[in-house]
Amino acid sequence: MEKKNIQVKICTGTLCHVLGGAELPSLEQHLPDHLKNLVEIKGSPCIYHCKNTDMKPPFVEINGEVIEQASITRILEHLEKLSTNDPK
Fold it and tell me: For residue range 32-79, what is the model confidence (pLDDT) as tens digits?
């Protein structure tokens, strides 16, 4: 089995949830088969990007990179880019 080398952290805090992030915890159900063994998904009660007033929730971190105004579609697009740039 391949090592899960893409880490996704979903903010499940109230602000992110209310401002569009309610669907994000279902991300795993939307992953295409070729990404399922590469992606590890975790929820976090807050990832503190809401403190930055220049950024808009909901927030997700992918390998430490912040995705603002996150949606399932935006996350999947970013994951596809990461998986195709993988040197393996």
Answer: 999 999 999 999 999 999 888 899 999 999 999 999 999 999 999 999
DSSP letters, 50-72, are GG-TTS-SS-EEETTEEESS--H
Question: 69, 56 in Cβ contact below 8 A?
Answer: yes
- pLDDT for the residue 70: 97
Omega before 32 cis (within 30°)? Answer: no
Which amino acid is located at 26 in the chain? S
- C-alpha 26/C-alpha 22 separation (Å) is 9
| CA–CA distances in Å: residue 35 to residues 13, 20, 41 | 26, 24, 11
Residue 18 C-beta-side C-alpha neighbours within 13 Å? 5
